[in-house]
Design a protein that fits this description.
4 copies of one chain form a homotetramer. The first copy, chain A, is an alpha/beta fold. The first copy, chain A, has 10 helices and 17 strands. In chain A, helix 4 runs parallel beside helix 5 and helix 8 crosses helix 10. Strand 16 of chain A pairs antiparallel with strand 16 of chain B, so a sheet runs across the interface. Chains A, B, C, D: This is Gfo/Idh/MocA family oxidoreductase.
Chain lengths: 379, 379, 379, 379
Amino acid sequence: MTYIKVGLIGYKFMGKAHTQAYKNTNFYFEPQDPFQLKAICGRNEESVKAAAHTYGWESSETDWRSVVERDDIDLIDIVTPSNTHKDIAIAAAKAGKHVLTEKPMALNVSDAKEMLKAVTDAGVQHMVSFNYRRVPAIALAKRMIAEARIGNIYHMRAHYLQDWLADPQSPFAWRLDKNVAGSGAHGDLNAHIVDLARYLVGEFAEVIGMSETFVKERPVDNGKEGKRDVTVDDTTLFLARFDNGAVGNIEATRYATGRKNKNYIEINGSRGSIVFDFERMNELQFFSNEDEEHVQGYRTILVTEPDAHDYMKAWWPPGHLIGYEHAFTHQANDLADAITRQKPVYPNFEDGLRCQQVLEAVENSVKTRTWEMVEKSNG
Amino acid sequence: MTYIKVGLIGYKFMGKAHTQAYKNTNFYFEPQDPFQLKAICGRNEESVKAAAHTYGWESSETDWRSVVERDDIDLIDIVTPSNTHKDIAIAAAKAGKHVLTEKPMALNVSDAKEMLKAVTDAGVQHMVSFNYRRVPAIALAKRMIAEARIGNIYHMRAHYLQDWLADPQSPFAWRLDKNVAGSGAHGDLNAHIVDLARYLVGEFAEVIGMSETFVKERPVDNGKEGKRDVTVDDTTLFLARFDNGAVGNIEATRYATGRKNKNYIEINGSRGSIVFDFERMNELQFFSNEDEEHVQGYRTILVTEPDAHDYMKAWWPPGHLIGYEHAFTHQANDLADAITRQKPVYPNFEDGLRCQQVLEAVENSVKTRTWEMVEKSNG
Amino acid sequence: MTYIKVGLIGYKFMGKAHTQAYKNTNFYFEPQDPFQLKAICGRNEESVKAAAHTYGWESSETDWRSVVERDDIDLIDIVTPSNTHKDIAIAAAKAGKHVLTEKPMALNVSDAKEMLKAVTDAGVQHMVSFNYRRVPAIALAKRMIAEARIGNIYHMRAHYLQDWLADPQSPFAWRLDKNVAGSGAHGDLNAHIVDLARYLVGEFAEVIGMSETFVKERPVDNGKEGKRDVTVDDTTLFLARFDNGAVGNIEATRYATGRKNKNYIEINGSRGSIVFDFERMNELQFFSNEDEEHVQGYRTILVTEPDAHDYMKAWWPPGHLIGYEHAFTHQANDLADAITRQKPVYPNFEDGLRCQQVLEAVENSVKTRTWEMVEKSNG
Amino acid sequence: MTYIKVGLIGYKFMGKAHTQAYKNTNFYFEPQDPFQLKAICGRNEESVKAAAHTYGWESSETDWRSVVERDDIDLIDIVTPSNTHKDIAIAAAKAGKHVLTEKPMALNVSDAKEMLKAVTDAGVQHMVSFNYRRVPAIALAKRMIAEARIGNIYHMRAHYLQDWLADPQSPFAWRLDKNVAGSGAHGDLNAHIVDLARYLVGEFAEVIGMSETFVKERPVDNGKEGKRDVTVDDTTLFLARFDNGAVGNIEATRYATGRKNKNYIEINGSRGSIVFDFERMNELQFFSNEDEEHVQGYRTILVTEPDAHDYMKAWWPPGHLIGYEHAFTHQANDLADAITRQKPVYPNFEDGLRCQQVLEAVENSVKTRTWEMVEKSNG
């Protein structure tokens, strides 16, 4: 049996999510070429060794360069902070490895272009982990749009709402430091919406945005006195026009008290509408104006039918929910399939670049206070 | 212009609901023969005079017999307590008046039969005010069942939940005295469900029920000391078989904390299901297994379309809700139409009797602790 | 008994809504000085006579000037199209009448200022019919914000969604002609949101908006051939900053398939959030982060408690819903109270002007493609 | 390191669910003594070997007796059909193994008593896999009831609704044969409700039930002609009294079109209510009448807080859902903890017996058509 031998760079939250994906892909989907968990990598030797043991990796490393150079690795999976993605991805591509990277793909458009060039030149598989595309309800939305069930799209209205900063007394964290995190809600949450918008609606033409930092400084953590400046956006909102004439209204915030992980997307078209809310990720709402008038209404599709809904045959009977990490498992399975059969997989680095271009146009519009066109060149 | 001249016996909560119905029928529906508010009747002369003034009745009376005998009255509307319905209805019928009575129609099956005989002998119009039938969402449910949208019915699952007695310290009230109120939750709330069950599902075959009085005595009101025995049921539940083979599960309570007026009805059939909740009375949920499998789901129909939903043309544009009292207005308009065109109107006294027969069979089953057949004779 | 004698200019949809308000105020609220329906006015003599009869007005007129000049009128209520509001309101004020006008108050800021000056100079009562303020759930939201239940406001996210233009084949109508209607979704729907935003959040500082007309021409109606240009906005969206630092995201459209009258408002603050949806107008959602952590959640308040919720004592027991037109009744009752007791009533013409100033700033930003400050002077 | 060495008897749907539980317990919860997947057992040698490979078991066996006798096994986990549970469990106990069995524990009360005696005599750990107890929302409900948040319980209203038999043309299956399946909806679905009722409300006193088989015969499967009799219940409903005075209304069906796996539980008490729906298993609804009156409402608790909700620290950040199989993982972890620390774990075989006693009393009441007391002795 042929295995896809994985080297995982990073081992925290996302390292855990990706590891379970490789294992559960083998367990639930039985891919033709299963994953083999060859090496996990982190800078702290003791911690990464413990992670290797708990998660079931064959070996651990403390320098990502060693992993990239190992002959027994086919796929480099990057789940470290964004500022490290570029160097690792390019080195991996040059070493002939397939590359999967967490989102956002890069710190900026320029880096993303370099990364795209590297994987294209190397002829390896490349993928960005926009996991939402593999939530079955989103996959169903995509299919329904392709089936013309909502007709021509007029509106996309989306907001990704969290609340973990709503309390002005909650302490400073590294995610609030622009040097480390790149940006705040925009890069973290709007990135997801932008990818889904491109997936479901189409390419962005122009944008106008606003950002706000509600709490300008926060207490330092660890019992010490003093405050520290918050240097990222707490919220970023933007209006958009798509190439196909649709209108977009997109917002991300960490200050929506009571909203824990509400990635809400509503798309209105000439024949119908669809609505998704990640806090009820197993459901998709759908309205069709082709139903007879007296029985029209938003229906709540429970997206758990093994025989009708993508990915669900691998899991449980109808009405049995899946959870957050399952989308990573679906993603890993699709990637395995692409590697084995040498066929393309999406979202790839070009998708990652396009997303970056939209995010950057929004950032520019915040500064210029006027509309900005969205660039779409690859180099 | 011909008017339908009304005498209203009773002037409290239901007197107010019925009065507005007559006025709003004229206003919104413009019936061929409008209602004329001739006389309102109550035992307290001062109070009933004030009600006549506020509500806009031409005259007031203190003895219902006087109203029944007046030549300038066409319709007697009875909204007094249940123990008075029989005498007034029979006298009205003998005087050749049409009769509308609040539910429950009578204290028992025997009285209901006498009342039915009286109106039939007199050849007058007769109606029981089961107002829920005229909620547009229920009218839509009826239509959809007639259109075979849910196929053969397997299940009716209904509960009418209120919570105004959930606090064991809330004081005694006349509704808790069997001599005055006849029964508790059963006659008050299950009566509505039974009528809707007959309307939407069919006739009852047999029943088995249970009743409970959770709080056996309560503080007397008005600052006095002491307690008084509660002599009615706090809750009554029953299981049922319908003549057509469907299975019923019905429950009423005043102890469902947080449920204010939840008259919930779910009907499951071989092709679909419908769900109604009176706390969202402008909506009807509908599931159809004739939709394609991947887009099946419970849809929420907003029953406010002037062009598609019964009664709604008289009101506002789509998406503009109506409220509780509107069902009484619809009922009054249907009654006006029936009187003017001399055609039958439902639910009539036979429906009221059938409802009483089901309620009484349940009460019997509570005593005998075994299943009871439901009688369906008229005399 | 003293009456408030009303002259109503206009008699279609809003004429019906306002007429029922005067009648139902007398019926349900029994104001100290009840309304008297003196005169209704419209240009078509036959139609307005019929309306007077159906609705119960004492007389009808075909020239609004005649109504304004009548000595037996205290209050002029204007429900005609927006382009007529200014002349009627100023004439009424000069004649010493109180003035109530439908929204939007005027065609532009300049007219609104003249109107405000006229009523202020005349010392009469003046009110704009932003009826949503009198929906009990909105009144409750206002109260809860005043009670500091949601703390400092970070976000207002609001969209008013309808769908009656989603079908590109639906015919041209006067509302799509800028000369007649002034604007499209913006003036019709965003006007409501802007007033509620000012009511619940505070004054606007700056805005940036976009508009779109999805269907540029539509078939003419009445069986004739040919198309006609749509000259108003199908949708207008805007981002905003409030004076208090809150961030606004506001959108109105007539192309949100399946949304019939969804006026959705979400407000997130440092201690909690509230959510309102006009399609479920009897409910208000509320999240409090002051609940213990393991039992926090969005709660759905059924705003029907006679003893706890504004306006509800006049209506029915808990859990019995009210409908669209009830908010007009509440508005009429508050106006009666203000006239009788000579105390101020809101929203008044200054509120109407402020709303107009926000709407106009958005329109300007659509043209200039950059942020616009919101003017707040009265003259 | 000490391992808990598992022998799993059965390898289909439940075998998969239990296997992932052992693996994910090690992965997410890192128990002191992790599970070791020693042997999986099935009658078809080829199939069970494949399962061993896919799922990661060290060995496979075709005779459960061999597994029970192996020295390298600590825990026997039984996921085979109900009619095999008794023999395997008793043999395992006699061999000194801990025993986990799927529900329902046995075919009847008598067998359940023998099984309880065997594990008690052997002094081994014993557990029944009523997995719902480990859904975090149910664990939260239990905690909230213990905190007296809903006060004295008046009502439990629960129904477990599926729809896979709603189509009368769907073919016969072994689950419809009483000889194989024991019972239909009652043993399969009501068993879950009965266990949760005992967990959350208390012991049952008496019951009265009804059963129905809507479709008496069904086409045989596999392209052959002919029909076969359905010998189990399609639906079973029952009313109940609990020892503490609460009233129960319980129903299970496979004919509720559109309900895929709706295990709905509503409990009303003197101070509040809780509501659970397995189709939204990450949520728990809660109403408290101790909130101030104007802000009371049913709140939807998203039960995903790592710091506040049982089991959730092992998974993801707030607002990230878990799925169906996670409850099995929680169960496995609690069992590991109990085995390691030699402390009791619930629900045990006594709980399984109690459940059986309730189910059997309902079945008796269906036959006798009258109320039946629920026996509670252990032998």
